[in-house]
Amino acid sequence: MLFVIDAKAGLSNEDFKFLDFASSSQFFFVLNKSDLIDGDREVFANIEQQLRNKFPSLQGGFLVSALALEDREKLLSGLFSSLGILNFENDVLISQSRQYENLLVVEKNVSQALQQLESGIGSEFVAFELKEALMKLQEIIGVRFDDQIMDRVFKEFCIGK
Asked: Model-level pTM?
């Protein structure tokens, strides 16, 4: 959980009431509007100490200004590193077993296409495997093309036709 605190206003009784209610899980605090306190680390340290004294589930905090792009990036990278997520830009989330099964089929088709390509087998066999892989990928993303269109594309794609 992230708990955002206005740096200028500081902690209020309502903040403590909310945290009493919600802090059974681990949380981070974000001291926002650091531009209004000139990035004063002492204000940050005082708020962090108040929170640590009362809430052992506090994981840490960040001093940021939502107006500063670099602070937003600092917050995200700090959270990801604290949570053990180092780089997620190129990661993919598979949310259904159907998607996972389709990706396994895609991997098999592409692998077979590469093997056939390396062995010098006819390009129509390679094209067939790639077509099957493409159709499974389209199924995952919810895009379907008519089989006649796909047949025409792969017929024109095949070398020697």
From this structure: 0.48
